[in-house]
Every structure is written in structure tokens, then in C-alpha cells.
Specification:
elongated; four-stranded mixed β-sheet; protein yfey like fold; 252 residues
Length: 252
């Protein structure tokens, strides 16, 4: 008899325990749902504030017209518009002191970084103090004369090999003023002020000429742009600093 009573008590206690457990789980689930709904309402409220409570400012014109900010100056041969999109590619233009992002005076690491992925390789080594780098791919025919830069040579841990001039031998590249291979001598003279063009006889072609653009600005007086012609049309052109830009035979 006692055994039966004990079993009943045990079953009763187990039943009570299960009931308590189920109740506890139900309470937890209910609280979780309430918290989730509360969070959702709070988020909605924050978004609503952001949308509907913007600070009011007085306005006298509901449709303001954009004001013109066009203050561009005429492009000069010594300036190339520099933007984050400027790259060394077939759209890059030659100025008297560089092409696209690559500038005369940059040492080799600086030029390689500015080239932004366009690979440069040594195409001709005249000697230890003068050699050429050439671009690969579609820019093959654009070359960079490298010489020793005394100023960089005086700095510690800085290579003194620097860009001295840029030679163009492909028709895709133009100058800032639009000059390119194949243009007539008359076209070149029409693109630049005549008083800034020096004409010299070609060293190896008696009919040909060097048309040399001389900048007016005092800060640019060490730079030149040289167009080589066969007497009628431009066959190649280059730009850079003196005296290297005037070397007829390059690094030879």
C-alpha cells in the first residue's frame, strides 16, 4: 500500500515539474516576442524621425538654378589637366614637362608608380648615365629618356635616375594643343604662336626641319617641345628639359 502511495506522489511531482517547465518556456517565448516587436517599433520610429524631422531652412526659391562654376582658362602647352582618372594610356597628352601622370624629373620608382599599371622596360641603354624606358602594349612607341638627376643624387636613399624627356613615335598620342604625327608644318605653326616657334634645319634630312616650341613662362624656360619633320609633315616629336631634349641622337 505504501509503495502505491509513493508512486502516486512521484508521478504527481513529475507532472508538476513538467507543468512548471512548460509555463517557464511559454513566458520566455512571450517575452522574446515582445522584445522583438519593441525593437522593430523603435527602428521604425528612428527611421521616421530621420525622414520627417529634417531641420527646416528658409527658402525663397523652390527651383534654384545651378550657378555656373566654369572658370577654365585656355589650355597651355605646359599644363595637363590632372584628375584622378588621368592615366598613362592612348588618351594621355604630351606637355612640355610630361605625359599624363608621368612627369619630367620623376625618378624611376616615382614614374613607375605614376604609370598606374602600364609597364615600362629598358628598350635601349646607351650608357650608364643615359638610357631609354619604353611602354608596352598600345603605347609601344612612347619612350622615356632617363639620365642622372644631380639634385636627386644628393638625397639619401633616392635613386638619381630620372625622366629627362619623352619621345613620341606613334600617331595616337597628341600634345595638349592637339599636334600629332602626320600634321603638316603649317598645322603646327597654326597651333602655336609663331613667335614661340624656332625653325632649324634637320641634321640628317636637308629638306626636314626641327620646329621647336619655346614657352614664355619663366618657370618653364628649361623645357622645350621639338617636332621633327621631313619638310612637310611631322615624323616624330618629343618634350623635356634642356639639354637632353635637344639631343639629336638621343642617348647615342
Amino acid at each position: 500500500m505504501n509503495i502505491k502511495i509513493r508512486k502516486r506522489k512521484m508521478l504527481f511531482l513529475v507532472a508538476i515539474g513538467l507543468a512548471v517547465a512548460i509555463f517557464t518556456i511559454s513566458v520566455v517565448i512571450a517575452q522574446t516576442r515582445m522584445q522583438t516587436q519593441s525593437t522593430g517599433n523603435t527602428t521604425t520610429s528612428v527611421e521616421s524621425v530621420g525622414q520627417n524631422t529634417a531641420p527646416e531652412t528658409p527658402s525663397t526659391n523652390l527651383n534654384p538654378q545651378p550657378q555656373s562654376t566654369d572658370t577654365k582658362e585656355p589650355v597651355k602647352e605646359n599644363t595637363v589637366p590632372e584628375t584622378p582618372k588621368t592615366k598613362l594610356n592612348s588618351q594621355a597628352q604630351l606637355s612640355i614637362n610630361g605625359i599624363g601622370p608621368v612627369k619630367v624629373g620623376m625618378n624611376i620608382p616615382e614614374a613607375a608608380a605614376a604609370a598606374q599599371g602600364t609597364r615600362l622596360y629598358i628598350s635601349y641603354a646607351g650608357n650608364d648615365s643615359c638610357y631609354y624606358l619604353e611602354a608596352k602594349g598600345r603605347l609601344k612607341g612612347v619612350s622615356f629618356m632617363v639620365t642622372k638627376d644631380e639634385e636627386k643624387g644628393r638625397q639619401q636613399n633616392i635613386t638619381s635616375d630620372a625622366i629627362a624627356r619623352i619621345d613620341i613615335n606613334i600617331p595616337e598620342i597628341t600634345t595638349v594643343s592637339g599636334a600629332k604625327i602626320g600634321d603638316t608644318e603649317e598645322k603646327i605653326k597654326s597651333l602655336y604662336p609663331l613667335e614661340q616657334i624656332e625653325v632649324k634645319t634637320h641634321e640628317y634630312n636637308p629638306k626636314g626641319h626641327y620646329l621647336i616650341f619655346v614657352p614664355k613662362e619663366q618657370t618653364d624656360n628649361k623645357y622645350r617641345m621639338v617636332f621633327e619633320t621631313d619638310g612637310k609633315q611631322v615624323t616624330s616629336f618629343r618634350a623635356g628639359k634642356l639639354p637632353e631634349v635637344g639631343y639629336v641622337e638621343g642617348c647615342s
